[in-house]
Amino acid sequence: MMTTSQPLNVLFLCTHNSARSILAEALLNHLGQGRFKAYSAGSSPREHQRPNPLALETLTQAGIPTEGLRSKSWDEFGQADAPHMDLVITVCDNAAGEVCPFWPGQPATAHWGYADPSEGDGDDDHKRRAFLQTLHLIRKRLEIFVNLPADALSKLTIERTARDLGRSGS
For position 2, what pLDDT does the model report? Predict the structure, then answer.
């Protein structure tokens, strides 16, 4: 699945691809040190959907690059010329319950549920704290994930490990 010359491709899915999946994509690309290549997509992004400005602000303040981040449909990753994924992780409960498209190569799958930091009626400071908390929760799981030894990244092992991390409640 993963060699020393090819990174492990990971796709993070959410409904709109504007907050949680964007945070996860940017964070894994930042922490992965070339061992991983993260992508994100949504099951039903709104027309002209863009990453939530508070997600981009949170990443920038954490020192995580945001260049190239954009909201997109998961249909892009079912195309013949799309990169083949090794692991697909849903990060919201809505996307986890939807029928996913066929992923070329039949990647491992897992669900890591996080509350939507953009929901709620709070003011911008409240929402900023929610985005920061979500970033920290995602970071906790990804720090464990990126530090796995190479032999733990076989398809069956990575699926079991990713699913266990999803159940850990971290």
Answer: 45
Residue ranges of domains in the chain, CATH in brackets: 8-161 (3.40.50.2300)
**Mean pLDDT in the chain?**
87
Q: How far is CA 73 from CA 87, 113, 166, in A?
A: 17, 19, 23
The reported pLDDT for the residue numbered 134 is: 97
With contact defined as beta carbons under 8 Å apart, do 23 and 134 qualify? yes
Three-state SS at 12: strand
What is the side-by-side order of every strand in the sheet holding 108-111?
A: 36-42, 8-14, 87-90, 108-111
DSSP state string for 99-156: -PPPPTT--EEEE-----TT-SS--HHHHHHHHHHHHHHHHHHHHHHHTS-GGGGSHH
Written as one letter, the residue type at 88 is V
Residue 51: CA count within 13 A, CB half-sphere: 23
